[in-house]
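Dear colleagues,

As part of the handover before I leave the project, I'm documenting each prediction I ran so the next person doesn't have to rerun anything. This entry is a single chain, and its sequence is reproduced below.
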Amino acid sequence: MQLDNIIEFKYSEELKTKLSEFGTVKSFEEGTVIINENAYIRSIPIVLKGSIGVMRTDEDGREILLYYIKSGESCIMSFLGGLHQDTSKIKAIAEEDTEILFIPIDKVNLLIKEYPQWLDYIFRLYHKRFEELLGVVNDVAFKKMDERLLNFLNRKSELMKNKTIHITHEQIANELGTARVVVSRLLKQLEEEGIVKMGRNKISLV
């Protein structure tokens, strides 16, 4: 099992062994919903391969992307919800074909008590996610939609390690919490400015 890229775990072979012993590996195809809002959290995910998009939905069904979970990372929202026996406050979707190691909640508590590296890993994730959420708040509060759109495309490109992003205008609108017509208009504007090139269900950063 590939655990070498997980933050700080390279210093503890014993901890990696415990994770392999306690955990269950599952694979998800691109677009699969891994957990829905209000579902009970019974295990903590660690992404071994691929990536996950974490979304928040309002009462009207509108969504907004909060952050991505990359290989070697976990979801701090799942940590907090699981440890407090609470339900999920987010929806997680596989951004690409993804492999995840699930650690049962009772084993998470055991690891916290026995391995300082595990607790350090959680705090590092908490810090990273807090900064990313501040970035989302900053974008929504202070940036125009064209800036948010371009930032989104750059983040998606970096995540996929590809200048060409296979995505629909509707999907972008859902992740940015806006209307499809707004996204289409802004993409056309970006194309006219030579910043992107559009194809069928794909966008290339020039």
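Strands lie at 24-28, 33-35, 43-49, 51-57, 63-70, 91-94, 98-104, 164-166, 196-199, 202-205. The radius of gyration is 18 Å.

All the best with the project,
I.
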